[in-house]
Write a structure and sequence with these properties.
8-stranded antiparallel beta sheet; elongated; about 0% helix; about 750 residues; mainly beta; single chain; 2 helices
Length: about 750
């Protein structure tokens, strides 16, 4: 049945099926260089649901299943009470034994109260589905009674009266995990092997009237977890752990005839043997699977397939078990605990993200990033999604194991809507640069907004409320590129201040703290030489605070500063209007925003000052950003005795080291190079160690990291992975600098 207010099809777990044509995916990020473009909009198309969570009642346990229709959301799971939004556990609780119903628009309980119980063990409601006419709610799980009325793991509820339908009773031998309903048939999947006393392994079908067992036979050898009827009603999509259906090999996914259960499409070898299908949803042209894997090398992402031929349209390769999927307005929303999407051009392995969005015709992640935590239970975070419309708004509900939503306490349930968008972007991080007379470079780290990728920035000068420049840029949480604008309307020797705002078109951030700079009267010699010698990354660490290391090379190759290192350290390594940065040797470091291909030849240059006796990594190349890398080389680290080691990986760890120590509390200039002539390590302008034997390094992409990263298995590994001391003037080059270039840099330290 089509819902007149939303144009959505209601079905298994109450998921509304989008029937509108898919919108086009945003055609890539705009250039990070500043330049006037069209202003941002409140939501970046095709995203049509905000990331702002709405006030919603909570459960005291896990929500496993949901269904929605006519403005009511039904939730089932393993819980015993519900409580108001923001209420702590045990506060304001009302009984709700494994089931509750809510007003979709307010998030508050309705008058429908049912208790799902079992005589022994733990009762749970694992699946809910509304009939097409919305008059009957079907529930499956592990339970023996509903409000004291005896049933056997499946029940039908009259939605008008919130009572058990006595004319729908059939015995199911074990847990029912999935339901799908048409006008005359209820399809079920789960752990069972008999239904109504007859053999039905894991999948079965019964009539909606009287619950008579139907001939439909799709026997599986392992647990069934998902059932979905195609929009034309001719086929049923099956998902689960199985390897065979009706004796034929097809792992985790199958398409069968809706009347007989005979196989229409099989998928041998299509999904990894250690992966399963947890959920299936459809729209007018496709169906979409949520997949969970166990162990290494498995498949954890989402697959889009065409209904016309049941062939794959796309699949993503994010790692982090996907539990639920829902389509709205051409976008596939999913609940998972994704932690590594680098293989598809998104974020590297890091703390988990639990809610994602993709266009139905493209797996690229869209800018929609509300979040939960893992929560209780296994834990994996979100478990189920449903959606419905009410009062002119469309609502996406999420249930699961989580106990926080968008960083605030909220258990079991949350919801989002198609508006209004109320969340403002983060305040931009700003840094000024005055390397040449007659110019001030205004640099900033692009902001982040949980449901907008394209943001508009305005620059304000000298306290004015009228912007002097407006531009746009695209950013997501793992890629916040540097933006830059040069003010030439300045006078050498004069001081100017700047503030910047970020807007999504509706919501605008506060102005950034005012940053001031005095226009230089002469070109600074050391930075000019670094740039002239071809640096592709050049961090001077002149920021006042926050998380931004701006790039002075002209390549907008900015960095993230982690765990609040000590900013504005003086005196700097190089004379002039600049500062250094201090790292604590425990957890502070910086990493490049940009993922780089492994360089065949390179130079890394920086200045260090320390008295540490615990050593630590000074600069290196690693595959991760939010944690210690699992692949790491092209690095310089200090041993406990103060000696410096330069290492690359080429079949094995290849290192050279200085004979002298440099933990004397003085500034030292350190340069490491690799090229056709091998490896070389320079300190204070002089060659201190070299080898002609090693001309290659590990050919894996990565991020430049400063101040700390993994040093496991490297020779003379120090006590600490992290460097305790000050660092300044870090640069990376795509060539091996010559000895004369390096000595010239060192000579300019007092320029």
């Amino acid at each position: 049945m089509m819902n007149g207010s939303t144009g959505q099809r209601t079905g298994r777990r109450g998921r509304a099926r989008a029937v509108a044509a898919a919108l086009g995916l945003l055609a890539g990020a705009l250039s990070a260089t500043a330049g006037g473009t069209s202003p941002a909009t409140a939501l970046t198309p095709p995203v049509a649901i905000t990331a702002d969570d709405l006030s919603t009642w909570q459960t005291n346990g896990i929500v496993w299943s949901m269904a929605a229709g006519d403005g009511v959301v039904y939730a089932g799971g393993t819980f015993s009470t519900v409580r108001p939004p923001k209420a702590a556990p045990g506060t304001g609780e009302q009984p709700a034994v494994n089931f509750a119903a809510f007003d979709a628009a307010t998030g508050a309980p309705t008058g429908c109260s049912l208790s799902f119980t079992v005589s022994s063990g733990t009762a749970t409601v694992r699946s809910l589905a509304l009939s097409p006419d919305g008059e009957t709610l079907y529930a499956g799980g592990q339970f023996g009674a509903v409000n004291g009325v005896g049933v056997s793991n499946i029940a039908a509820i009259d939605t008008a009266t919130c009572t058990v339908r006595n004319n729908f009773k059939i015995g199911v031998s074990a847990t029912v995990r999935a339901l799908a309903v048409t006008a005359d048939t209820v399809y079920l999947g789960g752990d069972f092997n008999t239904v109504g006393g007859q053999t039905r392994n894991k999948f079965a079908a019964v009539t909606t009237a009287g619950a008579s067992l139907l001939p439909f036979t799709a026997n599986a050898d392992e647990v069934a977890r998902a059932v979905e009827v195609t929009p034309d009603g001719r086929h049923v999509l099956l998902g689960g752990d199985f390897f065979r259906i009706n004796g034929t090999t097809t792992h985790a996914l199958a398409v069968v005839d809706a009347t007989t259960g005979q196989l229409t499409k099989t998928y041998p070898g299509f999904i990894h043997n250690n992966s399963t299908v947890q959920d299936i949803t459809t729209d007018a042209t496709g169906f979409y699977t949520a997949n969970e894997g166990t162990g290494g090398g498995v498949f954890d992402g989402r697959i889009a397939l065409n209904l016309s031929d049941f062939q794959q349209r796309w699949r993503d390769t994010c790692l982090g078990a996907t539990q639920s999927v829902a389509v709205y307005s051409g976008v596939l929303y999913s609940g998972s605990h994704a932690h590594d999407c680098v293989s598809m051009g998104a974020f590297p392995d890091q703390p988990r993200k639990h809610l994602l969005a993709q266009a139905v015709d493209d797996p690229k992640l869209l800018p929609w990033f509300p979040d939960t935590n893992d929560g209780i239970g296994e834990p994996v975070g979100p478990r189920v999604m449903t959606q419905t419309g009410k009062g002119g708004r469309h609502y996406l509900w999420v249930g699961g194991e989580f106990t926080t939503v968008n960083g605030a306490a909220q258990q079991g349930l949350t919801r989002f809507a198609d508006g209004p968008d109320t969340g403002a972007p983060w305040v931009p991080n700003v840094s000024l640069s005055t390397l040449n007379p007659g110019k001030i470079e205004v640099n900033w780290q692009s902001s982040f907004d949980t449901d907008d990728g394209e943001l508009t920035y305005q620059i304000f000068k000298n306290g004015s409320n009228t912007p002097i420049h407006t531009t746009t840029g695209f950013s997501v949480f793992w890629n916040r590129p540097q933006l830059s604008w040069t003010d030439t309307d300045v006078v050498p020797g004069e001081t100017y201040s700047y503030r910047i705002t970020a807007s999504d078109g509706v919501n605008t951030s506060a102005k950034s703290p005012a940053q001031s700079a005095t226009v230089t009267t002469a070109t600074q010699a050391y930075p000019a030489r670094v740039k002239a010698d071809g640096a592709t990354l050049y961090w001077r660490y002149d920021e006042p605070s926050a998380t931004f290391a701006h790039d002075s090379s002209g390549n907008l190759n900015n960095g993230f500063l982690r765990n609040a290192p000590a900013y504005r350290q003086t005196p700097p390594a190089v004379a002039g209007p600049s500062t250094a940065i201090g790292f604590n040797g425990t957890n502070q470091y910086a990493y490049s925003n940009r993922l780089h291909p492994a360089p065949a030849r390179f130079s890394v240059e920086t200045w260090i000052k320390t008295t540490t006796t615990r050593g630590g990594k000074i600069i290196g190349f690693g595959n991760l950003t939010q944690q210690n890398s699992t692949r790491h080389d092209k690095h310089v680290y200090m041993r406990n005795d103060g000696r410096l080691t330069f290492g690359v990986y080429s079949g094995a760890a290849r290192t050279i080291a200085t004979t002298g120590a440099y933990n004397d509390g003085q500034w030292h200039h350190v340069v490491a190079t690799q090229g056709p002539s091998g490896m070389a390590l320079y300190v204070d302008g002089q060659l201190r160690a070299s080898s002609i034997l090693y001309t290659s390094n590990e050919n894996q992409p990565g991020y430049w990291r400063i101040g700390g990263d993994n040093l496991a298995s490297w020779p003379n590994r120090p006590t600490s992975n992290f460097f305790a001391g000050e660092i300044d003037e870090t640069a990376v080059y795509p060539t091996a600098l010559s000895a004369s270039q390096i000595s010239a840099h060192y000579a300019l330290r007092n320029g």
